[in-house]
Amino acid sequence: MSGVTFVRDYLQLQFNPPPLLNALTPVTVRSGEGSAVFGEPAFANLILKQIGKLVASVDFRAEESLDLQFEDGSLIAISLRLEHYVGPEAINLFLPDNSMIVV
Predict the structure, then answer these.
(1) 29 FRET partner, CA 20 to 30 A, in 7, 65, 73, 96?
(2) CA dihedral in degrees (21, 75, 85, 63; nearest 10)?
């Protein structure tokens, strides 16, 4: 992961090379240092520590979560639970070929 942008009510996760991922539902970070959900005091520090880490796997579980597992065992989980949607979508994934996936 190469960067994170905090927008008023959602997160933007950046990767190098792209894609770019907008998370519009609750995001949880888990690492050896703890766990926090977007909006909690510890969240910003935990997610910023993910910058520079390599994603080892991506697990998409419809209506549950999109999980980004990092090589060191840490995790970013984006909720796909319907009750967490604040609008019509949970994530926007912008791909290198300029296409977009919306969930």
Answers:
(1) 96
(2) 100
